[in-house]
Write a structure and sequence with these properties.
The protein has 100 residues and is of the alpha+beta class. Helices cover 36% and strands 29% of the residues.
Length: 100
Amino acid sequence: MLNVIDTYERAFNAIEPSTDEQHNIVAAYRETYDKILDCFAELNVTKVETVGAEFDYELHQAMMQMVSDEYEEGVVCQEFAPGWVCGDRLIRPAMVAVTA
């Protein structure tokens, strides 16, 4: 199911509806996406906090380091893929960039 959520998020970021019909289609997909997230919440499955959080090797997988004026060293500055936990158990680490 995480791959399905990832696909929805990539699609929402890639499209910009311009007609009423396209807006209605996106709204229908958004409703389904929200229902999936509601099911996740009922199961206590939540996203890992990323951008602005201190890097935690137990929750984050560093894909690269970046220089940042906005964040101190060792802070997550970009998310490439969300991480997920169920309660206190890691399902998938977040793929992130960390400030150097």
